[in-house]
Design goal:
Helix content is 72%, strand content 0%. The chain is mostly helical. The protein has one domain. Helix 1 packs across helix 4 and helix 2 runs antiparallel to helix 3. The longest helix is centred in the first third of the chain and has 27 residues.
Amino acid sequence: MDNSHSQTDAFAAYRAVHADRRNLIIHSATQPIFVAGLVTLCIAPFTGQPGYAALGLTAMLVALAFQGRGHRMERSAPAPFKNGLDFVRRLLVEQLITFPRFVVSGGLARALRAPHAR
């Protein structure tokens, strides 16, 4: 497996591509929606409710659409995805590890207070 974009690298580069206040607010609002959608999608096969899978997938896609719009507000763009697997891997790492770590470490609060944040 290619580890050129490891969790450590992702966290180190995170602030550079998450500096715009509007994007940070969008991520703060939509990351929990993405996670809730992912959990719903994962438990759907065990519930006997096929609508749960559709609901979970819809929540994830809506969150991603908003986050994609937020990323366009940034001065620095994230590194391009190498392929579909790289997209899925980086997406899950960002949503489940990097963004929560950014919040808990105080990075989000610092970025929101930064004078250069728009």
